[in-house]
Amino acid sequence: MPTYEYECQKCGHHFELFQNMSDEPVKRCPECKGKVKRLIGTGAGLLFKGGGFYATDYRSESYKQGEHREKSASSKKTETKKDSGKAEKTTTATKEK
Predict the structure, then answer these.
(1) Residue 92 domain-assigned?
(2) What is the secondary structure of 19-86 as a DSSP string?
(3) Is residue 74 part of a domain?
(4) Which one of 15, 24, 54, 85 is most buried, counting C-beta atoms within 10 A?
(5) Rounded Cα gap, residues 19 and 39, in angstroms
(6) Cα(49)–Cα(4) distance, rounded to whole angstroms?
(7) Which domain holds residue 17?
(8) What is the reported pTM?
(9) In angstroms, rounded to a whole number, what is the distance separating the alpha carbons of residues 2 and 83?
């Protein structure tokens, strides 16, 4: 359903209504009950949802492979940091006994 813009010819009140295309245009202002005219709208906005149209559909294979390598390298660094943290805790616990 489109959004229609209206403007009151008496008080100048500007408002929008979400209506079916088959609905009759509004004839009276909700503020002063004066006559209104329907304005020419700007049309619908374009929405891109998700991970990205360009990034997912038109990237080269070499770019996709490089991105995959970066992700796997960063996940290995995270695992190494976790493992070294465990080793420090074990060593500390051994020294205290």
Answers:
(1) no
(2) --TTSPPP-B-TTT--BEEEPPP--PPP---SS-HHHHHS--HHHHHHHHHHHHHHHHHHHHHHHHHH
(3) no
(4) 15
(5) 14
(6) 24
(7) 3-38
(8) 0.43
(9) 57
